[in-house]
Amino acid sequence: MRKIITLIIFLSICFGFAQTKAIDSLSLQLAYQDQDSLKVDTSVQLIKLLYDINDFDRAIKHIIQSEKLSINLNYHKGIAEITYYKALIYAQRNDYINAVSEFEKSKALFRQLKDTLGIAKVNNSIGLLEIKRGNYAKGLQYSLSAIEELEKRNYTNELKLSYSNLAKAYYNINAFDKAIEYYLKALEIQEQLGDTEGVNESNSFLAELYSTKKEHRKSIEYYEKVLNSAGSDNDSIQGIIYPKLGGEYLKFNDYEQAKKYLVRGYNINIRSKDKASLLKVLNNLGDLNLQQRRLILAEKQLRKAGDIAKELDNKKELLKHYKLMKALDSTKRRWDRVVVWQREYYELNNELNKNNLDVDLNANEATKLELDPNFDKEITSPNTTNLEPTNKVSKTESKQKADRFKLIFYALLAALATVSTFLILIYLKRNSSIKYTQELEEKNIKIELQNKAFQEQTRHLESVNNVKDKLFSIVSHDLKDSLSSINGFIDLLKDGSLSREEFDNLIPELSENANSASLLLFNLLNWSKSQMHSLEPKPSLFDVQEVFEDKVKLIEQRMENKGITLVDRSLRDFVYADRSMFEIVIQNLLANALKFSKDGDTITISNHISNGSCIISVADTGVGISKQNIEKLFKNNTYTTLGTNNEKGTGLGLSICKELIELNKGKIWVESTPNVGSTFFVQLPKSKSTP
Question: For the Histidine kinase domain, which residue ranges apply (predicted)?
Fold first, then answer.
């Protein structure tokens, strides 16, 4: 990269040296030439070189001298060329009135000389000047009238400027297809001439145009061309392009690429303190995080974007900010705020539409705007064939022209007054209609939001009612059976129907029923809480091995009674989650392994690290699970089967486990083979994850 920069500097120095040498050579020629038309031609060449290097003061000195000599010699071609360069210098100095006046004088002389190229150059320059001042329709006509002649002569420098400015004019009056056509033409010439700055500008505008036309892949292609041309260390261009490129990827939901470019753009613009580009980054990042349901981060970014948009008075980005804030508060169900954002969006949108009314009218014409054949057509009279100096027009003719101008002026003034009155009436009527429409829309939005709130509340109540019905069904069936069995044992003991020896033999069964009822109540309470949306994890770092030790103690007696062996391969390792929720999951998984294991089977507990997460497993060599039944696990529907000793369950344990693990940003799954055994896996993070 350093070599390329050195080469560019070297070539610039060589080019500057060559220009200086040419200027000195022409100055020397002028000093020794006779006072004739050849000297004027040499002077015009010198003026052109001085104009190209922006040495306007020296150029003006030569223009004054050459103009006097041309008038004395009656050399019309010299006067035309000198007047043209005088106009160019006025234009560069933003002296619009003098520039246009000199351009018109120059064009009149070129017409008398029938110099079509000279006329084309003047028209092209006037077109560029008018487009620069925002007079797009007028500037377009001048530039279009010059294009054909410039293309015929292959004047690449003039064509490059003409194509670029035509493209800008079409872009500003929303004639996007035409703008793309001329930017592509400009780009071709810029690449031929090695104009890197012009190539980047054309590629950037083409990217924006394709984005406006919703051709986002083409837009990305041209933005990437700008980045490739700029190089990897050009922060100023990257800071502008990265936010736009990230926004394009966001348009078709490529979140990874969008995030990559937006984060890069954010870092660059934070360093450079470029608020305009930072505003675009923040709006797009807010949109990205909103779509990915990271609502807290999205709100923080969007609020900062809103502050910057108001500070910079960037109404386009502020409008986007209002729209995104409306979507955010709608997602958060803050309906009162949604109404506020909708009103802000509506008012700003109306203001922008009103300000762009003239541009919209021009845009309607621009879709069919081509060169008017009668544009700038020379008005000739029978006696205008001789080349006469402009200062020899008779006083009578001047007076007649003045009278005609007065008449036209008064007629235009009257027409303007009539049209102004008519437009004011239309505006007042339109404003009244907009206000009425706005009030209706606000009322409709409020009604719609209220209906949505009612529907949401109804759905919630129905869900709660379903939870209640399911809860009573399970309590009345499974819990009743366990408690009835326990009550039956107690009644037999109380009536003396059982001997001491018989009671001792029945104690293990009584203990199993009590444990079953306890686990059943435990799962029911946690399941009902989760269904009522009241579970909120409180994560912290804790040791997995400690939880295994506590929960194994609870089932040691039952394992011994059932003849099952425990293999403990757990290691001391930490996870970041809600400990009480994790304990519920481990207790359920151990209870299930015990439930579906037979005498002589083995339960194995273990944990290990994988990709920065902790993987916990509970394996058994029990009856296993069929493929069809695996698909029924972890569902909200209750699904249960009897254990190897006819143990009962609610069918809710694994559903609760899944919900608790997912609340802690983890995963749970099972691998099983019938008559071989099952292994349940739990994956949890080892540290607090960043959004």
Answer: 474-688
**Nearest CA-CA partner of 651 in 463, 465, 529, 470:** 470
Residue 212 exposed, middle or buried by CB count within 10 Å (0-12, 13-18, 19+): middle
Packing angle, helices 335-355 and 357-366, rounded to 10: 60
Q: Are residues 564 and 667 in the same domain?
A: yes
Q: Provide the residue range defining the domain that includes 647.
A: 540-685
Q: Tell me if residue 568 falls in helix, strand or coil.
A: strand
* DSSP-assigned states of every residue in 611-671: TTEEEEEEEE-SS---HHHHTTTTSSS------TT-----S-HHHHHHHHHHHTT-EEEEE
What per-residue confidence (pLDDT) applies to 643? 57
Q: Is 401 part of a structural domain of the chain?
A: yes
> What does pLDDT average to over the chain?
78
Which CATH number covers residue 664?
Answer: 3.30.565.10
* Single residue among 305, 333, 361 that ends a domain in this structure: 333
Check residue 21 and give its pLDDT: 66
The last residue of a domain, from among 479, 499, 524: 479
* Number of domains comprising the chain: 3
pLDDT digits 0-9 by tens, 435-469: 778 888 778 887 888 887 778 777 767 665 655 55
Asked whether the whole model's pTM tops 0.85, one would answer: no
SS3 391: helix
Start-to-end C-alpha separation, the chain = 37
Write out the DSSP string of 221-240: HHHHHHHHHH-TT-HHHHHH
Maximum mean pLDDT: which of 47-51, 331-335, 599-603, 657-661: 599-603
Residue range 473-492, pLDDT digits in tens: 444 444 555 565 566 667 66
pLDDT tens for each residue of 534-560: 567 889 999 999 999 988 887 887 888
Q: Is residue 499 classed as helix, strand or coil in its secondary structure?
A: coil
Determine which helix (DSSP H) or strand (DSSP E) holds 565, and give its type and residue range: strand 565-569
447: in domain? yes
Question: What pLDDT does residue 131 have?
Answer: 81
Indicate the residue type of 191.
Answer: E
Q: What is the tens place of the pLDDT at every residue in 121-175?
A: 888 888 888 887 878 777 778 878 777 777 777 878 778 877 887 788 788 777 8
Both tokens of 647, joined, read 């143990």
- Asked if 548 and 676 sit in the same domain, the reply is yes
- Number of DSSP helices (H) and strands (E) in the chain, helices first: 25, 7
Q: Is residue 388 part of a domain?
A: no
* The pair of three-digit structure tokens given for residue 115, joined into one six-digit string: 């110099």
pLDDT band at 1 (very low <50, low <70, confident <90, very high): very low
Report d(CA 17, CA 315) in Å as an integer.
Answer: 47
pLDDT band at 348 (very low <50, low <70, confident <90, very high): confident
Residue 439, token pair as written in the block: 């009030």
Q: What residues contact 145, with CB distance under 8 A and at least 6 apart?
A: 120, 123, 127, 371, 375, 376
Cα 407 to its chain centre, rounded Å, is 55
What is the reported pLDDT for 534?
53
Domain harbouring 228, CATH code: 1.25.40.10
Looking at the structure, tell me whether residues 547 and 425 fall in a common domain: no
- Same domain, residue pair 544 and 466: no
**Taking the CB of residue 251, how many other CB atoms lie within 10 A of it?**
16
Would 474 be classed as within a structural domain?
yes
Mean pLDDT computed over 680-688? 91
* Domain match, 201 and 274 both: yes
324 and 453 in a single domain? The answer is no
Residues 552 and 434 in one domain: no
Tell me how far apart the alpha carbons of residues 303 and 204 are, in angstroms, rounded to a whole number. Answer: 28
Q: Binning pLDDT at 50, 70 and 90, where does residue 671 land? A: very high
> Is 153 buried (19+), middle (13-18) or exposed (0-12) by CB count in 10 A?
middle
